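Quick one from the shared queue. A colleague (R.T.) flagged Recombinase family protein as missing a structural entry in our internal table.

Convert sequence to structure tokens.
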Amino acid sequence: MRAVIYARYSSENQRAASIEDQTRNCRRRAEAEGWAVVREYADAAMTGSDSKRPQYQAMIAAALRGEFDVLLLDDLSRLTRDSVEQEQTIRRLEFHGLRIVATSDGYDSQSKARKVHRSVKGLMNEIFLDDLRDKTHRGLAGQALKGYWCGGKPYGFKLKPILDSTQRDAYGQPARIGTVLEIDPDQAAVVRYIYERFVDGASYTVIAAELNGRNVPSPGSTWRRKTRRCGGWMNSAVRVIVRNPLYTGRVRWNVSQFVRDPDTGQHKRRRRPQADWHQFQEETLRIVSDEMFDRAKMRTQDRSNPSKRLKSGFRAKYLLSGLLVCGACDAHYVLADERSYACSSRLNGGVHACANRIRIRRDVVERAILDPVRQDLLSPDRVQAMAAEMQRQYVRSVEASQARSTALPRELQELDARLDRLRERLRTGDPDMEPDEIRAAIEGRAEAAGAC
């Protein structure tokens, strides 16, 4: 039988060798069973609650294509730590005839107790993740109450580690007991410029274009990107800065949380009740005055007309949303207005973010894509061919069902034939023995054969 191995570990703080350990356990089981391992899939430093793991999705796609017969895991938690996702995935794989074996926790999809086993294991895995999340949040709350910074590095500031010389880390150096913010003078000057230009009437896009024109590094210019286009300023970065009270020295923590949408699998930010917030004023972090921040806030409220949000590409969903790509910078084309698409980098960051100023009429590009579909895929000949193929698939399915029904134990088929002959002899009045006796004997043997 053909087997594949799926392995995973959760965070960058865990050992990369964990993948090798899991794979070794699975290969040992495959050798013991005589299975041929045809491929290995592994997701490194990815949480089990994320269903969009690339290798996980590749493994499922291969399973649905019938490329292997057995899925080997070290334990079920490597597959997923979401009990709903676990049940849906296992049912899909079992429906396609696959066997799932977890070497460490003993799960086997051919076991009679498999449903109880995976239900209990799935619940335990999900509770583990919830407990880990609560412990992490509790630890961060303790740091926040001590006045330490618990988030990432906001633009305009530096992260300063606080060391305790009486404690040592794993490398013998003074242990870091927390992190605080301190102002970055160069970036703070950019923040003040953004506020000044914004309250003077400049738009987010104009400010972003000006910063790009001056070659000012953006907040994301140091990110380790794999697919993102340029590292220039976008109007979204300007918008975040002019709305952040941290620049007035107002420190807030536990304001929001990310929750997973069960329909899309995406994590969305949700604001917590204000009673749960932890906030305090730290004047050493002030970059702009309260007056400047309030003026910017008033202007952001004036700009909150929903009809003006199309340029962001976040609100409206259209036929080609997320499918068109700029040939100059690889950014997505988004709806610039009701009638045309344009490069999002050009819209949000100006000419210095992307030199491509071409706009495409929405009706033209949609017609260019849909017309070939109508002419080729939905032509009468193609529709007739698809209908014929569907009919052939249905016939094959019926034939396969009939083949399974004829594959009953031979003895059971013979007993069915004897029952037919018995009915005929009873009808003609020529039984060899009492009818009730004959019927009871044959039906008893039929039940025994059917239970095999």
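The chain has four domains: 2-136, 146-181, 184-249+286-358, 410-450.
The chain is about 45% helix and 15% strand.
Added to the table.
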